[in-house]
Amino acid sequence: MAAAAATGQRPETAAAGEASSPQWAPPEHRRERAAAGPGEGEDAPVRPLCKPRGICSRAYFLVLMVFVHLYLGNVLALLLFVHYSNGDESTDPGPQRRAQGPGPAPTLGPLTRLEGIKVGHERKVQLVTDGDHFIRTLSLKPLLFEIPGFLTDEECRLIIQLAQLKGLQRSQILPTEEYEEAMSTMQVSQLDLFRLLDQNRDGRLQLREVLAQTRLGNGRWMTPENIQEMYAAIKADPDGDGVLSLQEFSNMDLRDFHKYMRSHKAESSELVRNSHHTWLYQGEGAHHVMRAIRQRVLRLTRLSPEIVELSEPLQVVRYGEGGHYHAHVDSGPVYPETICSHTKLVANESVPFETSCRQVSPTWGLPAIPKSGTPMTQAQPCPTGIPLGRGPGALVYPSGCPQLGTCSVAPLPYSYMTVLFYLNNVTGGGETVFPVADNRTYDEMSLIQDDVDLRDTRRHCDKGNLRVKPRQGTAVFWYNYLPDGQGWVGDVDDYSLHGGCLVTRGTKWIANNWINVDPSRARQALFQQEMARLAREGGADSQAEWALDRAYRDARVEL
C-alpha cells in the first residue's frame, strides 16, 4: 500500500498492473532484481524487451537484415536499369528521334554594345598584336564610332584586287523587271491606298507624303519634279497645285500610273543606288588577310564568335564618278508576325510574313530544288520562281529547305551592326552622310521640307547633320538597333539613316561587314545550334570543298 501511495496509484490499480505485467525477463535483469532486493524491485519494475518465445534472438535479426538488404538491392538495381536505359536512348536517339529536329537550344548571353560616353570621346583598344587603335565617338544617335587605321594600305589594296579578280555586278535595290509583277500582286483598294499615303490624315496628299512611299517605285528615285511630271502626264492634278484631294485621287486610273512608270526606264543616275559590288568570303579556308580582318572585327565588336562567323561575307562596293546611295537604313523594323527565313527553317515556326531581313539584289540565289544541306559557293541567278532569300551570305541550306519549284536560299538575319571600311581616298565627294544624327527628335515627314529631301544624297548631302569623309584604312561602325532592355535586339534606330554622297571626282571603294542577329533570341540560338551540327556532321575535310571562295582560291596575291 505504501508503494502504491508513493506512486500516486490506487492499490487496486497497482496490483492489477503487477498482475498484468509479464514475468519473463532476460537473465541480466533477473540478476539485477535479485541483487536489488524485494523493496527496490517493486519501486523500479523492469519492462520486458520481448516475449519469451525466442523471436528476439540474434539469428532472427540476421535473417531479417538479409531480407531487407536483398529488397533494397533489388530496388536499387531496378532504378539503375531504368536510368541507363534512358541514357542509352538519348545518346543514340535513332532515326525517329533524330527526325524530330535539334534539342533545346542553349541560352544566349546578352549582346555587347560599346558605350559612346559623349561625342569626341576616344578610347584605346588593342585589335592587333603589334599596335593600338583609337576609337572615337562620332554621334550618340545613332551610336556611331570611327577607327582610323583599322586597315593597312596594303590590306585595302588587296581587298580591291580580290574584288576585281572575282568580278563585280551592278547594285540594284529593286530591279525594273520585277516592278510590274510586284504591282500586279498588290491587292488594295484605291481608298485604302489613299489612306495609306495620307499620313497626316488631312484628306489631301502632299508631295512629301507621296515621296515618302514611292522611293522604290520601279527602282527609280522619285523627286518632287518627277511626281509633278507624272501628275501632268496622267492628268491626275487638274489644278496643278501638286496636292491631290480624295476626289482627284479616286478619279485617277492606277493603270495609267503603272503604264507611266513602266515607260520611263531609270537611268543609272536616277537609281536608288548607283554602284557595283561583289562578295568576298571570310570564313575558314579564306585568304589569310580576309580571316585576319574578320578576327579583328570580332575583337572590335566583342560579340560571340558564333554570331560574327555566321554573318554575311564582306561586301566590296565600287562607286564610280556619279555614283551614290540615297539615304536608307541597313535593316528594318522588328515585327512579331515576321520571321527571318533563315531561322524559320530551323525553328520550324509558321508566321504570316517571311522576310530576308535586308534588301540585297534578288538576282543572287541558287538553282531550284537543291539538296538539303547544300553549301552555298558561287551564287547563280535563280532559274525559276522568286527567291525567298536575297543574298549569298548564308553558308548552307538548313535541313528542311527548300520547297519545290522555288529558289530558296537561307537568307540572313537582321543587321544588328554595320562595319564600313574605306579602301581608298576619294578625290571628290563620296562622304557617308547621317542626315539626322544627334537630332533631338525624329519625324520621317520632316525629312522632306520645302522641296528639300534630306535623303537625296545627290542634291542635298551637304544639308545632313554629319558627314564622314572617306580616308583609306579608316573604319566606321554603328548599331542599327536600340537595346531591348534585356540584352538583345530592340526597335530599329531611326537615327541610323545614312547614305553615300555623290562621287564628284574619281572612284570610291568601300567594304561592308554586316553583323547579323535575329530579333528572336530563341531562333538565333536554334540557328547557331543547327549550323554547329551541320559543321560537325560535315567533317573536317568536307568544309574545304565549299568554304574556300573559288574565285580566288588559287590566287597568289602578295602584300
Q: How is this fold's topology laid out?
A:
Elements: H1 2-6, H2 11-20, H3 27-43, H4 58-91, H5 94-98, E1 122-128, E2 131-139, E3 144-147, H6 153-166, E4 169-170, H7 179-184, H8 190-197, E5 204-205, H9 207-213, H10 224-234, E6 244-245, H11 246-251, H12 254-263, E7 273-274, E8 276-280, H13 288-301, H14 305-309, E9 314-319, E10 324-328, E11 338-340, H15 341-347, E12 353-355, E13 415-422, E14 428-429, E15 432-434, E16 448-449, E17 452-453, E18 466-468, E19 475-479, E20 481-483, E21 489-492, E22 498-500, E23 503-505, E24 508-516, H16 521-547
Parallel strand pairs: 11-12
Antiparallel strand pairs: 1-2, 2-3, 3-19, 4-8, 5-6, 7-10, 8-9, 9-24, 10-22, 13-19, 13-24, 14-23, 15-18, 15-22, 16-17, 20-21
Keywords:
single chain; 559 residues; alpha+beta; 9-stranded antiparallel β-sheet; 5-stranded antiparallel β-sheet; 16 helices; 33% helix; extended; disordered C terminus; EF-hand-dom_pair
> What can be said about the biggest beta sheet?
9 strands, antiparallel
Q: What share of the residues lie within helices?
A: 25-40%
Number of helices: 16
Structure summary, number of beta strands:
24
Transmembrane segments: 59-84
Pfam families: 2OG-FeII_Oxy_3 (PF13640), EF-hand_7 (PF13499)
Protein name: Transmembrane prolyl 4-hydroxylase
Catalytic activity: L-prolyl-[hypoxia-inducible factor alpha subunit] + 2-oxoglutarate + O2 = trans-4-hydroxy-L-prolyl-[hypoxia-inducible factor alpha subunit] + succinate + CO2
